[in-house]
Design brief:
There is one protein chain. The chain is α/β, with parallel strands linked by helices. The chain folds into 3 domains: 12-59, no CATH class; 63-254 and 446-455, Glycogen Phosphorylase B (Rossmann fold, 3-Layer(aba) Sandwich), CATH 3.40.50.2000; 265-439, Rossmann fold. The chain is 36% helix and 18% strand. It contains 15 helices and 18 strands. It has helices at 87-101, 144-158, 169-182, 194-200, 210-222, 231-241, 265-272, 293-303, 327-334, 349-358, 373-380, 393-396, 411-423, 427-439, 444-460; strands at residues 19-21, 29-31, 45-47, 50-52, 66-70, 105-112, 118-123, 126-132, 163-167, 186-189, 225-228, 248-250, 279-284, 310-315, 341-344, 361-364, 385-388, 403-406. It has an 8-stranded mixed β-sheet, sandwiched between helices. Helix 3 (169-182) links the parallel strand 9 and strand 10 (186-189). Helix 2 crosses helix 3. Residues 1-57 have low confidence and may be disordered.
């Protein structure tokens, strides 16, 4: 689908549609449900001469034709699993492709440290706009908004979005200013929230800045819609940030059920050069303290000698808040696990699926996790998960049905859960069946359905049905 180049104009159905002007943050064109002949369950009202749509059921005619997706700090072209690239990248790519298939032109905006502004075709109906912002990675959180001001001004002139969907707090800052200048609504997905990370962080882990906390507070207060991955995240937005509950849409992420499938574990182990009889633990994710790869290694040390043929795969790369270079390898060596633990770089989905199929268990001892996409990917391959009972993992994993959740990311608790899964008669086959059934309920098509509903409500200015 070609990207439609056009100046702003009312839609073809303008004769049937009355624009609604909302004075907050400038005049913004909206569409009222009653003017397309299908009023929602509540009538439209008039306040101070302004039409205000309070329908709980915006019609499909208010879907955006052009969507701006902001991913300031990480590019969709980057391989997830290292640096700043993770589940957010997967989310943006998978939803953008499917939104385009439904007739929406999608432009993903990402910032690069140097070079020139350019547009790169990514998929049919999807392109990536690279905007150079020198020094962004080293900029203190308090100065990010000022650094992104010229980007917002340029996008307000050059781009022509009907809705902006901002991912992560830095994108929210850009989106907030862009939407003020362009007069369009913003939908915000936090992915990780500073207040939640600070509440869960270890004593030796750096706290998220006050500047970021304040920025998220402003973004939450001004975005038309907030997208939460789980009901737990929705509760955090309301409880910690004071979000209006009626403005929060719970839209679970999906999984590519055509790539992550139950396959032949023996064949996957042959590809990875893992012994057929090994008890294989896998960790998949960025090597950050809050995700707990060190906990996996320490748990393996407690299991070593108790579980025959123990093997561990750590799949992922360093990130901004990572361990000192080589620290995890030294930890494994110090614990006598140099021949047990293998480190592999981030992998594309098809290769990652082999890791999941080969593993007996995926271990995710995260301190905080907005969702835990790797957990659902693993379950789609038939691999149960041992994780911590925090945030999104409590939704991504069904405790006792598709995996086992422990109260805290402590090596002894994780080791006990892994030992139980590997040794208790009948437990692993039962969890494998439950994992496949649970993962089948997550699809990117369902995610896109939820996002489209959120975009409709953002444009109509109404609460979600």
């Amino acid at each position: 689908m070609p990207w439609p180049i056009r100046p702003f104009r009312w839609p073809a159905s303008a004769a049937l549609v009355t624009p609604i002007w909302v004075p907050r943050a400038g005049f913004r064109p909206r569409w009222c449900c009653r003017d397309v002949g299908r009023p929602g369950p509540r009538a439209c009202a008039s306040r101070s001469g302004l039409e205000v749509c309070v329908s709980a059921d915006p019609p499909a005619t208010v879907l955006p034709a052009r969507l701006g997706v902001l991913s300031v700090h990480t590019s969709p072209l980057h391989q997830p699993g290292g640096g700043n690239a993770g589940g957010l990248n997967v989310y943006v790519v998978e939803t953008a492709r499917r939104l385009a298939r439904r007739g929406i032109a999608v432009e993903i905006v990402t910032c690069v440290p140097d070079g020139w502004s350019r547009l790169t075709p990514f998929a049919p109906g999807v392109r990536v706009r690279h905007v150079p912002v020198p020094g962004l990675a080293a900029t203190p959180d308090a100065d990010v908004a000022a650094l992104l001001e010229p980007v917002a001004a340029r996008l307000a002139v050059e781009a022509d979005y009907d809705v902006v969907h901002a991912h992560y707090w830095s994108s929210g800052l850009l989106g907030r200013r862009l939407c003020e200048l362009a007069g369009v609504p913003m939908v915000f997905s936090g992915h990780t929230l500073a207040a939640v990370k600070n509440a869960r962080r270890a004593a030796d882990e750096r706290a998220e800045s006050v500047a970021r906390l304040n920025a998220e507070q402003r973004i939450v207060a001004t975005a038309e819609r907030l997208v939460a991955a789980t009901h737990a995240e929705a509760a955090e937005l309301v409880g910690r940030y004071g979000a209006d509950p009626a403005a929060v849409d719970v839209v679970p992420p999906g999984v590519d059920l055509s790539t992550f499938t139950a396959g032949d574990p023996a064949a996957a182990r042959a590809v990875l050069e893992v012994a057929p009889d090994a008890a294989l633990l896998a960790f998949v994710g960025r090597l950050q303290p809050h995700k707990g790869p060190d906990v996996v290694i320490r748990a393996a040390a407690l299991l070593h000698g108790r579980i025959p043929e123990l093997a561990v795969l750590i799949v992922g790369g360093r990130s901004g808040a990572s361990y000192p270079r080589g620290a995890l390898r030294r930890l494994a060596a110090d614990l006598g696990l140099a021949d047990v633990v293998r480190f592999l770089p981030p992998m594309p989905p098809a290769q990652l699926a082999d890791v999941y199929r080969a593993a007996d268990v995926l271990v995710m001892p995260s301190r905080s996790e907005s969702f835990g996409l790797a957990a659902v990917e693993a379950q789609a391959c038939g691999t149960p998960v041992v994780g911590t009972d925090v945030d999104g993992l409590a939704s991504a994993v069904r405790d006792g049905r598709s995996g086992l959740l422990v109260a805290r990311p402590e090596p002894s608790l994780v080791a006990d859960a892994v030992r139980r899964l590997l040794t208790e008669p009948g437990l692993r086959p039962s969890l494998r069946a439950g994992a496949l059934a649970h993962a089948a309920g997550f699809s990117w098509e369902s995610t896109v359905d939820g996002l489209l509903a959120s975009y409709r409500h953002a444009r109509c200015g109404s609460a979600a049905a």
